[in-house]
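[Structure tokenization] protein backbone as discrete codes
[Encoding] learned vocabulary of local backbone shapes
[Protein] chain in single-letter code, fold in tokens
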Amino acid sequence: MTDKIINIDKHPEWYHDIPVMKTLILGSFPPHIDKRDYEFYYPNKQNNFWKIFSAISGISLSDETKDEAVDKRKQIMETLNLGVQNMGKTIAREGNSSLDSKIKIIDFQDIEQIVKQHAELKRIIIAGFSAPNSTFGSFRRYLNEKGISKDLPKKVKPGDTFLVIIDKREIECVICNSTSTATRINLDRLIAQFSKYVGKVE
């Protein structure tokens, strides 16, 4: 990041603690404020994230107003028993870039506390794995720093799973593709991939 303009960004207070959370999906960090269509997770409508979970939940996002956007997305989360959080609490960002390769997490969100607050949580989906500062790379560093797990795989691919022990419970972790259009994976394939893991936990 040398010889570049580095900005320090703090994550907005977006966390929505749904009543029943069977699955938690993790991302890295929101795009720069100039690239947001509304103030909530995955706020750039070009990203496929909410299109995927709209399709899985059956809750349409078409014809929504800006004021309805956040409420609709919370409705999707509650319908699917799906929690959403990003790994970064504070980051160093190169310029206004949204790329994981241009972001370095300084402070992490408290993912462990989310798990502790939800005894029903069985699965964590990790969306993005290829860049060193991807969601998986950040999750791996978070667990190492917390002393939760030091034996995670170094290389992963979509569909890979592994277990971590948090709050004396085994939590299944699943690797999925990033939902960014930069991954060049079409929407139908992403819907098929994520639908295997969302809403399927007994």
About this structure: The chain is about 25% helix and 25% strand. The mean pLDDT is 91. Residues 66-80 form the longest helix (15 residues). The radius of gyration is 16 Å.
